[in-house]
Specification:
By secondary structure, the chain is α/β, with parallel strands linked by helices. It has one domain: Rossmann fold, CATH 3.40.50. The protein has 8 helices and 8 strands, in the order βαβαβαβαββαααββα. 43% of the residues are buried.
Length: 242
């Protein structure tokens, strides 16, 4: 897929999710000319092992960290939906909120968690992925009506490509060997989450190379996805072959 002038929406549960699971891919796409925007569903106020941590202060800190990470990676902006950490549910309300953003931002590609990953132990990941996938369906329906979606001011929009990160059965591997350093620099911005693992981009690059999946053909560092074309003949074939 040629990413020049393509708009990409990434829907995740917490700050650092997208940067960790697909930061190398996004860095590659941004260099190729894509515009990337994030939607983060929760406040991430519970992401600490220290019982003395103030949740409100942590939520504010994690937004600051995400802002710094956006600058490092080249992400244009982030929309925060403000749901409680570890309490995210795939509700109609959440699906409509994401669908409204899809109609506003008109992404060509949607990136989110694979909600059908076996043995996923974080419920927020599953809820974010499921809500985003189903929101894409709502966003394309011209007859869908809701108080948050006005078909006159927000016309329907069909996302063409779906990339599910942290996939159960990957069918696409994107080479990130040349983007490990920028991924390490981006994750270092999330100091509350990764500061204990490494203190410099050089250390981080080595660690991320060690932790990364390997491309099944080249053996180079790569990020796996379950990719689905969503529109046209390719979309129909992909859907009926499931």
């Amino acid at each position: 897929m040629n990413m020049k002038n393509k708009r990409v929406m990434v829907v995740s549960a917490h700050p650092d999710d997208a940067d960790f699971y697909c930061g190398g891919t996004l860095a590659r796409w941004i260099r190729e000319g894509a515009e990337v925007r994030y939607v983060i569903c929760t406040n991430a106020e519970l992401g600490s092992d220290d019982p003395k941590t103030d949740p409100a202060a942590l939520a504010a800190l994690r937004k600051e960290e995400q802002t710094a990470a956006n600058r490092a990676l080249g992400v244009l902006d982030t929309t925060y939906l403000g749901y409680p950490d570890t309490g995210l549910k795939p509700t109609d309300e959440l699906r409509v909120e994401i669908a409204r953003l899809i109609r506003m931002q008109k992404p060509h590609a949607l990136v989110t968690f694979d909600p059908w990953l076996h043995y996923e132990i974080h419920p927020d990941h599953t809820a974010a992925g499921l809500s985003a996938v189903y929101a894409r369906h709502i966003a394309k329906l011209p007859l869908y009506k809701n108080d948050l979606i006005d078909n006159d001011s927000l016309p329907f929009w069909a996302v063409e490509h779906l990339y599910m990160m942290k996939p159960d059965r990957p069918n696409t591997w994107i080479d990130i060997e040349d983007f490990l350093k920028i991924k390490a620099e981006t994750l270092l911005c999330h100091n509350s989450q990764f500061g204990m693992l490494y203190s410099s981009p050089e250390q981080g690059e080595a660690l991320i190379r060690e932790m990364s999946h390997k491309h099944p053909e080249s053996g180079r560092a790569a990020e796996p996805f379950r990719y689905m074309p969503l529109e046209g003949i390719k979309g129909i074939k992909a859907y009926i072959s499931l």
